[in-house]
## 1
Amino acid sequence: MIGRDLLSMEDLSREDIEKILDTAAHMQEIGQRAVKKVPSLRGRTIVNLFFESSTRTRMSFEIAGKRLSADVINFSASSSSLSKSESIMDTARTVDAMDPDLVVVRHKVAGVPKIIADALSAPVINAGDGAHEHPTQALLDMLTVKQAKGRIAGLTVTIVGDVLHSRVARSNIYGFIKMGAEVRIAAPPTMLPPGIEALGVKAYTSLRQAIEGADVVMMLRIQMERLQGALFPSVREYSETFGLSRTKLRVAKPDCIVMHPGPINRGVELSHELADGGESVILEQVRNGVALRMALLYLFTGRPSKDEEVAALGEETK
Amino acid sequence: MIGRDLLSMEDLSREDIEKILDTAAHMQEIGQRAVKKVPSLRGRTIVNLFFESSTRTRMSFEIAGKRLSADVINFSASSSSLSKSESIMDTARTVDAMDPDLVVVRHKVAGVPKIIADALSAPVINAGDGAHEHPTQALLDMLTVKQAKGRIAGLTVTIVGDVLHSRVARSNIYGFIKMGAEVRIAAPPTMLPPGIEALGVKAYTSLRQAIEGADVVMMLRIQMERLQGALFPSVREYSETFGLSRTKLRVAKPDCIVMHPGPINRGVELSHELADGGESVILEQVRNGVALRMALLYLFTGRPSKDEEVAALGEETK
Amino acid sequence: MIGRDLLSMEDLSREDIEKILDTAAHMQEIGQRAVKKVPSLRGRTIVNLFFESSTRTRMSFEIAGKRLSADVINFSASSSSLSKSESIMDTARTVDAMDPDLVVVRHKVAGVPKIIADALSAPVINAGDGAHEHPTQALLDMLTVKQAKGRIAGLTVTIVGDVLHSRVARSNIYGFIKMGAEVRIAAPPTMLPPGIEALGVKAYTSLRQAIEGADVVMMLRIQMERLQGALFPSVREYSETFGLSRTKLRVAKPDCIVMHPGPINRGVELSHELADGGESVILEQVRNGVALRMALLYLFTGRPSKDEEVAALGEETK
């Protein structure tokens, strides 16, 4: 079912998502051991090919790979010095020629991971491409919601912020709708993708209406430079109309959880009290990110032989 | 005895210091094997969270961690892009949510490792915070002195240079005084912390008087930009009055050793002949740094289970 | 036979080269296993000391080291911040004091790896020094040619481009001549090193004459800033006179292979169709680079004890 590459949530079936989330739950158990390491991917090489700078996502993949005993190689390049697509492709092919077992790609241009995946022998995981998709973020978000709420189907999930430019929003919309949640988005009109309702979401320009009765509110990080006129008048006005505070959250369900992919602009899209409050599962998202990426590396890396498969998830012996 | 975090030499008791130095001596033995690796921290994750750039300290911790079989993850961030304390804390909490077993923190602002340690689940080791403390440097310096001289108590240790801005000086003052050494400092009046004698040191503005009869002379690295007027007239004059040469060293004990935390400004605080001479233990300090940090990672990382403890320092079996 | 350090192809004997290429062929076999890892260098520390930025060479050494189970530590420094030779030497001595088993050095100034090697305890491999030598590139090129053609002796190898500034060209000239190939170089007069024929090569200023009847054509990467007047009139004219296309290649042997050390300036020194064509062994060069560097790390790292030697190249046991 699960394909060779993980490029988008749009590509995944409901069964794929369930398998990934179930595998991630197993991986969480490894993270609670004293020795947080299993030999599943011993002798495998994973390359983090990040053309766009990233800290948390790169670290999360690196820790995930090392907990599976893979060798993790980091490659970082500013997009500026590799601006021509030929150079990107030559870089990717060069990496591929070193025989990695899996390549994680991030690029500021939508579609680049797909182009790279088509050219490489190794499977590719998209770690974020422009405003297109960020499937590993969506999957860890879904894992977090499933564990906080016990289910995904039937929940009301509200995504708030600059949906137009957000790969996190796009991937989560695909994922949560596939799993049977009701997805609402709330954004200023200039940040609402035209025709977004065709994906099955309900679009609001009123934060209050969007979060009324919600089980989950996911706040998006706003790029501060987008709050200087063309898309929105000011930071202060954004914070007042689309920033979330505990007071505003009262119209949601009493046990509503608050999510954010990080890093947070505190006091802009999210108040301090909420970022650190009991409603927040933001650090759970980060924690689940490692387990989720362990699951993805395990499922997408070239399959181990039968003998290895049996031993792979057992406690490591010394 | 030893606490959860290692933030300052001020916090350590004499017994703590002795235990750390003894453990480091064991670790030195591992460094002399052909296979310089033991499984003590296998499956543990250590994060180097460096908000200030560093080469030798980061490498030293990385090598130390790998020799104990830990997974070491490097995180580097310029302080500029993370200037608000909220961002630093969110970064630290994000790292913590990935369940590291220990976090090594360096920051240009004094006190940041303490603030981070208070917020994290993982133990924190301070790898240098502003002009406050650099306890791992002081401990490796003490290990070096102890092995060169056979003891610390009763020795005369002179620290020379910009004591006011030096976290290395501050940590060494606390450490050597605790272990019973006589500590002298020598600096231009503008680089002497007011009231420093309250710590139990003797302060001099004459290099000659400060090193007369000394067993150990520790030269501090001078920031060249501090030798342009406000604190000191010129590089040349600093070198002549507070730079150390073999001639000037003649008033110290005949077997006096010369130390420097590196990197050296050759010809400024230390002459070429002394940097490379038989008096210098500077490369011993670097070598001991790895063993000392192995000891700290071993002692401060979440304790292994009993079975592991027995096996942990044995020769690695294949 | 093989010395302590690998600094230049000029130093290697024919027997050394044969031994290295034979060992690399063994290493290629490891790269084809599902578990691409052997315990040969377990517990050894390899430091990549790169004073000049590099991606593919650093990654190739890092992957090679990890496949041999070594701990690989990356040290990158811009040459600018370490411009004085004292600083470079102090940095190198500091690294050496951390007891690495091997140090890989790249520097933009010719001769620096040699100076460093003379000062260090650990063996040094030159990963490129200025316009001097790049022996590991030459060795992987020779491995590629040997496997593509079944032999090196008697082949005609043409190297095209800015030979004057190319460490790749220099190392390949030494290597291929030693192994009995006929080496020709083709370059504009301003890019031909004076007296180069003394090395035993034939120099041409006509691309056509140089590749007529060639078995191998190796295109060098041209620095675009060198095509702005002083050395050559323009990029377009360089591409027309010294760039290689399939049409121009027709005068070579029918089974002539095309090589390039990367990264390619597509459309400048090499046409798109050739870069991606069946004549190109460019990705084979990258792939062989990992195996070749595994061989070098294995041969130059402080020799394992006898017991370890027996086990070292066996399949890893869990």
Note: Residues 35 and 316 of chain C are 8 Å apart (CA to CA).
## 2
Amino acid sequence: MPSIIESVPNISEGRRAEIVAAAAAAVRRVPGVRLLDVQSDPDHNRSVLSLAGDAGTLKQAILSLFEHAVQAIDLRSHQGEHPRLGAVDVVPFIPIEGATMQDCVALAREVGEAVAERFAVPVFLYEEAATAPHRRNLEDIRRGQFEGLPEKLKDPQWAPDFGPSQPHPSAGATVVGARAPLIAFNINLGTQDVEIAKRIAKAIRHSNGGYRYVKAMGLLLQQRNVAQVSINMTDFTKTPLHRVFESVRAEAARYGVNVIGSEVVGLVPAQALIDAADYLLRLESFNPSQVLERRMREVE
Amino acid sequence: MPSIIESVPNISEGRRAEIVAAAAAAVRRVPGVRLLDVQSDPDHNRSVLSLAGDAGTLKQAILSLFEHAVQAIDLRSHQGEHPRLGAVDVVPFIPIEGATMQDCVALAREVGEAVAERFAVPVFLYEEAATAPHRRNLEDIRRGQFEGLPEKLKDPQWAPDFGPSQPHPSAGATVVGARAPLIAFNINLGTQDVEIAKRIAKAIRHSNGGYRYVKAMGLLLQQRNVAQVSINMTDFTKTPLHRVFESVRAEAARYGVNVIGSEVVGLVPAQALIDAADYLLRLESFNPSQVLERRMREVE
């Protein structure tokens, strides 16, 4: 079966549409790659590309993206609200189907090494690909940003995993790694009381004693006048959607409030939804190969 | 987006493994086709192939299957428990993704015409492709079987839709059509009382006033000593899995019985499970394009 890996490179350009379009074209011209989505944020001055393919295809696509971005983006004149280290700022690899996290870690190392060699850009490995615990967290790696790189790279704690120990003059440095799929999942409550949403968020999130792979906050949807628990699911294979949903429902009931709906923002792996169906229907020993579209890929 | 259509041809050979293997090979050699499954039943003396692809690919694959089957299978010496009319007995086309029922009806007509012309086999169109209401039902078309064909074909009510009005001497006739995906879905009860399963089956099935696209019966799983409602879902897009599950749960509760599990037998379109997740999670305006694997196919 051909494996499916997703990559979500973030580039430091969200204003000049022609540069973003050329970056997308650089990815798309690699045979076999699927460019699933491109989103630009002018305030952040940053664009997020979503692509999928097998390991070899993604390596080509990321190198092709670098070729364009290193030429077209100059961090010395880049301004935006979002912290960034480089022209291609961060490149995560995400196992979707027929690929393990270890496959993605290996791919991150391979791509990181190739990028450093070909473009003289220092590369940090992060998350599951990190080479030390203090280098796991993206925010920690990015602290100090592009402007702080010359200093940071001198610190032995922050020596790059690949490439030179000084930043690329215009393209800075890049963070490459492997992580589980992120799912943006919001649950809407039948109340305008944002305090209830905040209390529920606190109950379910990891940082306050909740589920390990949940980040959450409570907010008010101004237009609908509806309180929302806004959730980032950082590993649905270990903390599944349906469990979080049921917990939010139970916590809301404790305040006499109903769950009126939920939403998935952006892309979601089929398996996350199939797991929820499996739970609802109490399926006994259901095998992913029974899903017709998946079987199709398996017999390819 | 490349469309996905499924076809589940049934051939009248379930004992001679070499004939079945050659039939599978005849299908598999068509570029682009995916042979998902082959199941042979020696008592029925019949095999069921599951294949998927786009319309053009499936047409090629079915013609290739006929080429082999018409040569290798002789109905004059065929015996088995399952009723049958021909060497290739029935060929349904099933819309899975990016294809409508109308596309499958058009494909059934096209394949039926080509089969009749190339192999001199009379073809009946059935289900959604039927040309008259009394010709919709497969059982009605097949009544009288291979042995009754010469007589049946003389009846103006049963003139074939394509091909000669006498059967092919050895390959008989074939039924080609279009239908919704079938899902075999069984729900297990926390009781040994098969009467409860039978009463629930009666409550949910179409023939007794239940859901339009549900066939069901109650039975006892001897090995587990568990009563089961065994269900055929004939159109999950109109009668969804989760609605039937919830009804069975409610009916069982009326007897003080719990649902202890369920099982999907064989293949199931991803959408049937995603619909169940959508129901559980109360998703608001979820779009199938948000499923990563599906988006991948869309950008192909």
Note: The longest helix of chain A spans residues 101-119.
